[in-house]
Amino acid sequence: MITFKEYFEGEETHETVALLPGGYKPPTKGHYNAFKYILQDADKGVILIGKKERDGITADQARDIWEVYARYLGKPIEVAIAGVTPVRSVYEFADANKDIKIIVGAGDKDEDVKRYEYFEKNIEKYPLVQVVKIPMQEEGISGTQTRNMIADDISTAVDYFTPEEINQTDKDVIKDILSA
């Protein structure tokens, strides 16, 4: 049964935000396409980056590369480095934003969906949170292989791991980010 207010004001609408937490050292075309997958049903997106360095690639570099990618996504994107972990940042975001719909992207790797079981077990507290298992993107492009390629030949690596939409000027920007 709908309330008197809902009858006269119409169906209540909520802003929808897609969250994609991860390490992203560096963010690859697989990560980019995974984000596009959940972003299609959202008004805007938030990338939450792990703060740990991996093989010389920092959280700041990952953030800067995501900011290049964000220009190609067609929706407002916020890129943030997680305070503790990206998963914890998802829970903090959900607790601070109970009035918006949240789509949390979880990968196939390491059974990521299990990290968000608390939302399902507490659906009455988080009725607007949806955890989406994202199918494998780009045949499982490897972060480790990508980092090894960056160490060997940065130009070849950037061509390998960046999304096809990224133009050469922005690929050069990404090379500069990784060379810093």
Seen as an oligomer or otherwise, the chain set is single chain
Largest sheet: 5 strands, parallel
CATH architecture group name: 3-Layer(aba) Sandwich
- What is the radius of gyration? 18 Å
How many domains?
1
Across the major sheet, the strand order is 3-2-1-4-5
**Which band does the percent of strand residues land in?**
15-25%
- The shape is globular
Give the tally of β-strands: 5
- Straight-line distance between termini: 59 Å
- CATH homologous superfamily heading: HUPs
Order of helices and strands: HEHEHEHEHEHHH
Which structural class is indicated by helix and strand composition? alpha/beta
Helix amount: 40-55%
**Residue windows where pLDDT falls under 50 for at least 5 positions:** none
For the record, the CATH class is Alpha Beta
Question: How many H/I helical runs?
Answer: 8
CATH topology: Rossmann fold
| Overall average pLDDT | 91
